[in-house]
Specification:
mainly alpha; 76 residues; single chain; 54% helix
């Protein structure tokens, strides 16, 4: 099994044009700077058997990160 996308004829999302765009993208174009905060909130939920009340600080940190990221993106 290959890690290459199966569709190379342009019939799906991985045609030659999108493949070139993805391979030549800038480092931050598809990077979510809040991914670490999201992972921490998932880990908290896992540690606490899904008890959301135990993870409020993690959720708030993620919301604040995401809000700041969206505001920066809108300013550009």
């Amino acid at each position: 099994m290959s890690s290459e996308p199966q569709d190379t004829k342009g019939d799906g999302p991985w045609d030659d044009s999108t493949r070139r765009k993805f391979e030549n993208k800038s480092k931050s174009e598809y990077y979510d700077p809040c991914q670490e905060a999201a992972q921490r909130s998932y880990k908290c939920l896992f540690r606490n058997n899904g008890d959301r009340s135990m993870c409020g600080e993690y959720f708030q940190a993620y919301r604040e990160c995401k809000q700041a990221w969206v505001m920066r993106a809108m300013a550009k």
